[in-house]
């Protein structure tokens, strides 16, 4: 797991906002300091050197506990590379 950044607050939309020093890939799983899954990276916005990250929280994540621990360190999983599927091309039929 890699260090993502620190949590700032929970927005009115219910998403956790964090500040980072690196840009994570969208869809990466986010963990708290106790290695519990809390959500996925949704949007990355703001300045390029220290972007803000919007994290969609899982239903199993305790929002009250997360809101109480603002400033907590967050970690992101290593993104697995997706295998590219090769499509077979059918030969063209002559008219």
Helices and strands in order:
Elements: E1 2-10, E2 16-20, E3 29-31, E4 37-45, E5 52-57, H1 63-68, E6 73-76
Antiparallel strand pairs: 1-2, 1-6, 2-5, 3-4, 3-6, 4-5
Brief sketch in words of this structure:
The protein is mainly beta and 95 residues long. It has one helix at 63-68; strands at 2-10, 16-20, 29-31, 37-45, 52-57, 73-76.
Q: Give me the strand/helix succession.
A: EEEEEHE
Shape from CA axes? Answer: elongated
Number of strands: 6
In the sheet with the most strands, the strands line up as 1-2-5-4-3-6
- How would you sum up the major sheet? 6 strands, antiparallel, barrel
Helicity range: under 10%
Average pLDDT works out at 87
Strand portion, in percent?
A: 35-45%
Structural class: mainly beta
Unreliable stretches: none
Task: Compute the CA-based radius of gyration.
Answer: 18 Å
Measure the end-to-end span: 57 Å
The helix count comes to 1
What would your notes on this structure say?
With 95 residues, the chain is mainly beta. Helices cover 6% and strands 38% of the residues. It contains one helix and six strands. The chain has one helix spanning 63-68, and strands at residues 2-10, 16-20, 29-31, 37-45, 52-57, 73-76. It has a six-stranded antiparallel β-barrel. β4 (37-45) and β5 form a beta hairpin. The longest helix is centred in the last third of the chain and has 6 residues, at 63-68. The protein is elongated and about 70 Å long. The relative contact order is 0.30. The model has no long low-confidence stretch (mean pLDDT 87).
């Amino acid at each position: 797991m890699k260090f993502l950044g620190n949590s700032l607050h929970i927005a009115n939309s219910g998403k956790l906002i964090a500040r980072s020093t690196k840009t994570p890939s969208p869809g990466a799983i986010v963990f708290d300091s106790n290695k519990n899954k809390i959500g996925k990276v949704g949007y990355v916005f703001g300045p390029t050197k220290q972007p803000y990250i919007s994290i969609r929280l899982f239903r199993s994540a305790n929002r009250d506990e997360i809101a109480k621990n603002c400033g907590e360190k967050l970690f992101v999983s290593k993104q697995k590379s997706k295998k590219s599927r090769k499509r077979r091309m059918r030969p063209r039929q002559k008219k």
